[in-house]
Amino acid sequence: MIRIFLNFCLVFLLISCNQPKETKIYQNQESNTFEINWAKNFQIIEKGDEVVLKLFYQKKLIQEWSFGHENSNKMVLPLQKIGSGSCEYSIAFEVLGQLEKLQLIDFSKYHFSNAIRKKVSQGIITEVSDGVSIIPEKLFAKKPDIFIASGFNYNSPQYQKLEKLGINILYNFSFDETHPLGRAEWIKVIGLLTGEWEKSVNYFKAVEKAYLDQKKNFENQKITAKKTLINGPYLGSWHIPNKGSYMEILMKDAGFFFPNKKANQTVSSFTLEEIFIHFSDAPFWINPGMFTSLEALKNSESRVDKLKSFSNKKVFSCFGSVTQNGGNDYFEMGYLRPDKVLKDLQNIRLEKFDTLYFFKKL
Fold it and tell me: pTM above the 0.85 mark?
């Protein structure tokens, strides 16, 4: 995970548009069916002897990959050498039992998975980043069939240069998904590439069922939604996710709400003064930043003691399961298992603080 602090600040601001579940089936007259239930940024279509993977960002087609049979001039599935530019993608290989196909990762320091870090220390998996950017020489030395990179930087000069030099870069746009289950469904892309499509489908079905069951059970309890403060100050502003955003959906399904300024945008930007006006009475505060204690939080902004959530000590960080070097399971399994994240948030709402995994009470 490169530039972990910036990624952390962005993670709760991911865009979404809260729409009803819509099942999409892509097929033609001579194809098998590939069903995508929640994700909007990829499609898989089988055309005769070819399998086509289409990748979208903000409704625009960015990439189209065609995989053929052994006698074609296209790449053949399953791929044997794959690189991953994020721990979010890497963990999917482990979940599907395909770590042998994961040949490269970005930077092991920020990986939570012990199995992945162990393979790096054994020289089985190669790091291709210094924690800031890709080191081209290491990438070329391994020459993976495909290197999976975040689509957030799909038009960066570095990636464009690497593509011109023959590195196949597949852009992952899971960060832009409109629902937590949409992001989790990207495990199917890894399943397709590694030859574990059925396993990825079954894995996702289990996650989907767990999430929807938890949501329904919680709704049946008729628990009153509570206002919550979310995120923390960053470069003079405080960003609150708007209605329909990724984090807003999770929070709503867990019994929380927060005021929004502009529902048609990704986030609302508040000044610190506006935060105290609109959120001083919020009984909970979720994810204030990378602080490990209330004292450290107050040292960064002395006025936080005027917030009800702070004075009542109901402040919760998503750094509940971390390694000594900074690996955080929220940024790995948290995306593949939104049902577990939802469970944590619901337990915070129910004040069952001793059962948390991804989150912790400061």
Answer: yes
